[in-house]
Amino acid sequence: MRNRWGTIVAAVMLFTSVAAPAYAVTKRDIQQKKQEIKSVQQKQTSLESKLEQSQQEIERLKAEQKKLDEEIKKLDLAVEETSANIRAKQQSIEETKQQIVALKKEIEEVVARIEQRNELLKERARSLQESGGVVSYLDVLLGAKSFSDFIDRMSAVATIFEADRQIIKEQEADKALKEAKEQQLNDQLVSLQKQLTELQQLKQTLNKQIAAKEKLMAQLKEEQKHEEEKQLALEEEKELLEKQEAAMKSQLQEMIRRQKEQEEARKRALASRGSSEGDGGSLPPVTDGAFMRPANGPITSTFGPRWGEFHYGIDIGKRGSSVPVVAAADGYVYRSYYSSSYGNVIFIMHYINGQVYTTVYAHLESRLVGEGQNVSKGQMIGYMGNTGRSFGAHLHFELHRGPWNASKSNAVDPMQYVPF
């Protein structure tokens, strides 16, 4: 995007490549002006082709975005399904936990019954031991004093024997039940661990799905941003070229009467100079030659490489509360506006000895001239400031020999033309 804005700035500068003549107009001057207009029209044709290519690229991006929308929809459905699975798994885990609690309670009850029988059997063993050992059921039967007594004794022995068998049978059954319940409990614990592992995997899947969606959303947002910036840049460049053509056509008509107006403009400059002396800063003196110093102050940065990039002008430091800036030569204000990079900036077109020049005055605190206005050498056009991408109050001044182009190949060192 930085390169794109560089192109836009270059396009803006293209507008500053034409100015009113400072000398007599010749047929050669008129022909050259027509050639310049033709050159701008060719650039417009080229730009129209770029706009068409850009529109095709935009349509392609829209198709890609539609695909992304479908992918996002699929991811949303996947997230919804995974979330439902997680909720179901959490419910299953909770039920398994409740089953484990119930099993533990049942096992505790079986263990209690086993312990009670153990105590009963221990008690019977102690009774037998205290009575002198194990009494034979046969001795009991043979000790009967009558047949009726024998029948009673046999019934009692059968009852005791059956009771002992029942106790032992119940004891064995509870022990088997305890083992079965413990196995069931172990199975439930294994199932619980498996479900917890599956839940963790589901959560990881969910996180991956969410991350994939966020990545797609970020990609979609970035493509939309790029599309908007590209469209804005091309439309702005188109507008600038249209204005350049209109200005050049207007200038072609203005060249005829410009010579007569110069003297009047000079008088207006002197009047402006006199009225601005008390503004907090003095105007630089009008010097001989094609160009004069645009403002008073020290040169803080020169033309050439700077901070890893190329500095296409010079910087004049601000020394005073209100430092006036003047036109470096007679010319035509082609552009006067606020730029995101140059802040308040003015572009002036000059036509000197058959040569087109462009001067740029950037980071102004305020602008005193508007587009379409003719200015004379030394005429006040604004105040030095710190607007746009500027680090400290100063005037960024550029000089271009000929019309601007995207590569800025016409930029020249102002120090070689202006008597600083």
Automatic annotation (TrEMBL):
InterPro entries: Cell_wall_metabolism_enzyme, Dup_hybrid_motif, M23ase_b-sheet_dom, PcsB_CC. Residues 310-413 form the M23ase beta-sheet core domain. Gene3D superfamilies: 6.10.250.3150, Glucose Permease (Domain IIA). GO terms for molecular function: metalloendopeptidase activity. It holds the Pfam family Peptidase_M23. Keywords: Coiled coil, Hydrolase, Signal. Residues 23-131 form a coiled coil. Residues 255-267 have a biased composition (Basic and acidic residues). Residues 1-24 form the signal peptide. Residues 251-288 are annotated as: Disordered. CDD domains: M23_peptidase. Residues 107-181 form the Peptidoglycan hydrolase PcsB coiled-coil domain. It comes from the Bacteria. This is Uncharacterized N-terminal domain of peptidoglycan hydrolase CwlO. The lineage of its organism: Bacteria, Bacillati, Bacillota, Bacilli, Bacillales.
